[in-house]
Amino acid sequence: MSLHRLIYCSRAESLEQHDLDGILQASDRNNSEQAVTGMLLFNAGYFLQLLEGNRLTVTKTFCRIAKDNRHKDVELLYCEAAASRLFADWNMSYISVTGSVGALLQKYQTDRDFRPHDLSAIAATNLCEECACLN
Predict the structure, then answer these.
(1) Handedness of CA 90, 92, 94, 95 (dihedral sign)
(2) Engineering a disulfide at 5: which of 76, 82, 99, 112 sits with its beta carbon 3.0 to 4.6 angstroms away?
(3) What's the domain count of the chain?
(4) pLDDT band for position 99 (50/70/90)?
């Protein structure tokens, strides 16, 4: 199997806590069935998500997310082959942008505000890799 990693960001459209809970439950279930792993950062109405798995499956997952009306301004930041999984034990790890993750943002942004659309592909990848080390 060819392992690929994809990172995208988007803006949430009128998202309530129960919507986020539903996204996480569906992601956990669907990703488990498709051998997709990854993580989701969410804060202040923005998503940053890393998906890893078979290239075709990851691409289909991303396309489904991009069509989801809960996501606006979907932007693909990174997609390449990967040697190994960062989140091998997580169908979908949810990471809140608080505490140590909030402090990490200062390495990649000018302040603690979460603005994933401002991240370069390298910064988004590095941020996700550092989040993997925190899990």
Answers:
(1) positive
(2) 82
(3) 1
(4) low
Token pair 């990967």: residue: 82
pLDDT in tens, 100-119: 677 777 777 766 677 888 88
Smallest CA-to-CA distance from 126 within 106, 112, 110 is with 106
CA distance to 19, 37, 70, 100, 106, per residue, from 23 (Å): 6, 14, 10, 24, 27
Amino acid identity, position 108: Y
Domain containing 87 — which CATH number? Answer: 3.30.70.100
Q: Which domain holds residue 31?
A: 3-134
Amino acid letter, residue 121: A
